[in-house]
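Quick one: structure for this chain?
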Amino acid sequence: MQPAPYQRVAAEIRRRIISGEWPPGRQLPSQAALASDLGVTIAEARRGMAVLRQAGLLEGRPRTRLFVAHPPAVRTLLDPGGEWPHPRGEGATGSCRASADLAGRLRVPVRAVLRWHRAELLDPDLRPSHLITTWWTGTRPTEWARMEAEVVLHHLSPEEGEHLGLPTGMAAWLIQRTRYSSTGRPVEAADMVLPADRWRVRLR
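Got it. Here's what it folds into:
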């Protein structure tokens, strides 16, 4: 039984990666170019590439060009409140209504107006490392007296996977961080999402 066209696409890309013809970091041809090269339709090329992205051999956002994935460099997070020493990618700021979870963490009424900011943190080679979303009321705090953090297992949402260039549902760490004033009032809540294949977490 002959493999389906998309399976032939995935097998050929995998062969080129394993042989070293396409090394880590190499940008793949466009879907149209790959389809022409392998004698398949664009839809079949797209599906074959999606299979390898799901397997972790390719990385990048689905609607942009994909790259051969680097072997993940595993690092350990010790301080979830520390400053990130590398560049930041895209960011966004807005307002929202407090969910029950955020209302409890910030000690505000449910549906209270919050400000939020989401940032993509990048590795030195400018690939996405992790995401952090922060919420606060009023003016964003610049000082705090102490911090608490809790770590739970998480699976990437479609939006998180889009930002990180990783498949939806991939295992990740979710660090829920809360900062407090000297009087014990919560002044900021944050969620940090770190892909589990790239990060270990050991809070001090």
